[in-house]
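Sanity check

After download, print the first record. It should look like this:
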Amino acid sequence: MSISQSKIVLLNLMELCAALFRGPDERGWRELATHGLPELLGRVQDFPAFPAAPLKALRDGLAPYVETEDFSPLEAEYVRLFIAGPGGVPAPLYESCHQADAPRTMGQSALAMRDRLTEAGLEISLDSNEPPDHLALELEYLFHLCAEGWTNDPALADKAILFAAKDMTPWVARFREALAGAAPDPVYLAGADTTLTLLSKLGSLSSD
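Expected structure tokens:
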């Protein structure tokens, strides 16, 4: 089964967002800012169904770091926003922490995500103590469903669209709201906006 260029772009966007919220090191940021993002932005601009604004905001946010060739402030900001802020963690990267009822780490959504990963035969690619409902892991799982669904098994593509709409979009929207309230570096807010736009556009390609 062939795969359209628009779907390849969506897969690349999933990889980009997963890498950003996984927390790149200095080399990873440099590769993303100087190679991966510019190439992907050029392709997205040829894909009218996906607004380029979030990626342009990400490019603009990264520009000062590209100019100084110093991405270390982004690593420190990642810790403040997502791991150990002075007054607590403003925007945890776990679905369990953004539930309307009883938000907590390793809640029901984490257990459900663990089962999904096991069923798909996927291994957790973060530190071993990370809950499985980490945003980067959910994006990697979504990538798996879409890549397999768009090339081999249409039922997995349907599963991906449902997962994006029902499971990811609500909590990622709440995550984005929490992030925005923490005066984040524009890079991370643009990453959240790119992720939400990606999730919202996924279903429109079901008939490609």
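If your output differs, re-run the checksum step. Summary of this record's structure: The chain has one domain: 5-202.
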